[in-house]
Amino acid sequence: MNLGCPTCPDQGTLGDAVYDAGMLIALADKSPARAFGRHRKFASSGRPVVPAPVVAQAWRLGARRVYLARALKECAIVCCYTAAEWHQVGELIGQAALPAKKRPDPIDGLVALTAQQIGATAVATSDPDDIQVYLDQLPGTRRIVPVRV
After folding, report:
1. Any idea what DSSP says for residue 138?
2. Which pLDDT belongs to residue 2?
3. Strand, coil or helix: what is 49?
């Protein structure tokens, strides 16, 4: 990650959780209380990290996005990845042992890579198995736990 760019957050403010689209969708739900509770817990140790493509995956029109927008103000949205990192994501999704009916997901791969890079302890997701498949391909990710939201 190129955290030195002017649009990316200060590395010193990053927490130890990374959000995938499932977490953002849960925060935009009609009843986001459970997701907001998890968000508060994650935010207590620093700003949860959200790769920018995850925002695009979850952002939709409608009144409910106000809840999501409120939560995103407390997150660190990371937008700058190098070409080498995108190549690594491609290799990662190519190596992952996905179930037969699952398609490779570069955004889930990016979430796993981001978690590894920041030394996260948790990935907030609606599908822990999907994230775990990608984490299994990365060294040093045994302590990262995919947490169902």
Report:
1. S
2. 67
3. strand
